[in-house]
Design goal:
GO terms for molecular function: branched-chain-amino-acid transaminase activity. The chain has 360 residues and is an alpha+beta fold. Helices cover 25% and strands 29% of the residues. Strands 8, 9, 10, 11, 12, 13, 14, 15 and 16 form a nine-stranded mixed β-sheet that branches. Strands 1, 2, 3, 4, 5, 6, 7 and 17 form an eight-stranded antiparallel β-sheet that branches. β4 and β5 form a beta hairpin.
């Protein structure tokens, strides 16, 4: 039976002026809306008790399985307010499909993709007043699933909680889009072959935090990981996919190999690239190829992409004793890619792919 995620009969909200004040300068992930979507799963009864409730802390026993074995997954997507005041989602079915694949890898129950989309749509419709309207502002949505059974045995949990929370967010770049420096980690790996690299789960992000701190210490904004086996093949950043643009107008990204998260933004950029005269290519990319290409000019531009920032231009790659710097004066293709995707998301241009769907 399909889940409905019905809203409460008499929802309550913060005062309109308080919400307006938050949306005027929301930051990222600092404030949360009045309600959240929730559903429960048990091995005996399956999915049930779907509802939208007041935003509130979750109550889990100290023996809750998620605390001890990290059996959880999450997603990230956005709702966008258009110039006419309407609110739209961007490719929620793609997030739903990835969420389902993540659940399989983490031995969690699969939430039907239609139920995922319903939960998101219902929450956005209820929280419409929280969708900001400023430049590059949006309502960030965080669906997640976690093991909620209280036990200390090592096995998949027989009780699971699913929820969606929402947070108004501003532009990722408060001072405008600017190229960043990236630290190449050769000591630490994000994931290994056969691991959880293609799933969106907290453990992958936890493993990136120490190398991320080391990147900060080197004056870099992010960390780039190579493969764990040969320390040769580029995989992804701590939380973003990696791209390069070559002198012959190829848009190249590492192919999905089980270690790399199949980003929705990644896939979208590959599909819109031909509109800007770029040829999308998915293949293995070695670190040597990239640094050599920066030196001889065959690699013109580098960037990272993800839901939060859309596209982050890369100025340089750094490792122990070396810095490989892009000639930013020749980097003319990255920002048009970013702008095209944003224009589709905000409805400023036609959506030839049918990616956007109106909520209210």
């Amino acid at each position: 039976m399909a889940l409905l995620f019905d809203p409460p009969q008499n929802p309550t909200y913060l005062a309109d002026d308080v919400i307006a004040g938050v949306c005027a300068d929301p930051g990222f992930g600092k404030y949360f809306t009045d309600h959240m979507a929730v559903a429960n799963w048990t091995a005996e009864d399956g999915w049930e008790n779907d509802r939208i409730v007041d935003y509130s802390p979750l109550t889990l026993d100290p023996a809750g399985a998620v605390y001890h074995y990290a059996q959880e997954i999450f997603e990230g997507l956005k709702a966008y307010r258009r110039a006419d005041g309407s609110v739209w989602l961007f490719r929620p079915e793609a997030n739903a499909a990835r969420f389902r694949n993540s659940a399989v890898r983490l031995a969690l129950p699969e939430l039907p993709e239609s139920d995922f989309v319903t939960s998101v749509r219902q929450l956005v419709a209820l929280e419409e007043r929280w969708v900001p309207s400023g430049e590059e502002q949006s309502l960030y949505l965080r669906p997640f699933m976690l093991a909620s059974e209280s036990f200390l045995g090592v096995r998949p949990s027989k009780r699971v909680l699913y929820s969606v929370i929402a947070s108004p967010v501003g532009s990722y770049f408060s001072g405008g889009v600017a190229p960043v420096d990236i630290w190449v980690s050769k000591e630490y790996s994000r994931v290994a072959t056969g691991g959880t690299g293609s799933a969106k789960c907290g453990g992958n992000y936890a493993s990136s935090l120490l190398p991320q701190e080391l990147a900060y210490a080197q004056g870099c904004s992010q960390v780039l990981f190579v493969d764990a086996a040969e320390r040769r093949w580029i995989e992804e950043l701590g939380g973003m996919n990696f791209f390069m643009i070559t002198s012959d107008d190829q848009l190249v990204t590492p192919e999905l190999n089980g270690n790399i998260l199949p980003g929705v933004t990644r896939d979208s950029l590959l599909k819109v690239a031909p509109q800007l005269g770029l040829t999308p290519v998915e293949r293995r990319v070695s670190l040597e190829e990239v640094v050599t290409g920066i030196g001889d000019g065959t690699v013109r531009e580098l960037f990272a992409c993800g839901t939060a920032a859309v596209i982050t231009p890369i100025r340089s790659l750094k490792d122990d004793g070396h810095e490989y710097v892009i000639d930013v004066d020749r980097a003319t293709r990255t920002l048009p890619l970013r702008n095209l995707l944003l224009d589709i998301q905000y409805g400023r241009v036609d959506d030839p792919f049918g990616w956007t769907q109106k909520v209210c």
